[in-house]
């Protein structure tokens, strides 16, 4: 069992930056790839970024490439999402999720994720 808690959301102006954190409980955190997903108003939940269990591989949605960076610190049971050059289209509830898997892979498919946090709201004003 893994419990995930996101933090770092809030209100930011367009062009600004935020850093989200996802802290996990449990002693097997390094066995999980971690993904960030988001759900904007009236939209389906979508993939943002993911990182393999040891941090060797990462992946991003096209909307996040060049602006967002995912990282993790397994000693702290934590994953981070640094978001730069935010725009109003980034307004959403952001969720982190854990996917138990072997190897240095990650998935952008939310159906492969086993555990989810409660989410943190990000609002970007124009």
Classify the beta-strand content into a percent band. Answer: over 45%
Number of helices: 0
Catalogue the unreliable spans.
none
**H-E order:** EEEEEEEEEEE
Radius of gyration: 13 Å
Structural class: mainly beta
Number of strands: 11
**What distance separates the N and C termini?**
40 Å
The major sheet is characterized as: 7 strands, mixed
What is the residue-mean pLDDT, rounded to a whole number? Answer: 96
How would you describe the shape? globular
Oligomer: single chain
Notes on the protein architecture:
This protein is 0% helix and 48% strand. By secondary structure, the protein is mainly β. Strands 2, 4, 5, 6, 9, 10 and 11 form a seven-stranded mixed beta sheet that branches. Strands 1-3-8-7 form a four-stranded antiparallel beta sheet, with no helix packed on it. The model has no long low-confidence stretch (mean pLDDT 96).
Essential attributes:
11 strands; seven-stranded mixed beta sheet; globular; 126 residues; mainly beta
Topology:
Layout: E1 4-7, E2 10-13, E3 18-24, E4 32-39, E5 46-51, E6 58-60, E7 68-73, E8 78-83, E9 92-100, E10 115-116, E11 120-125
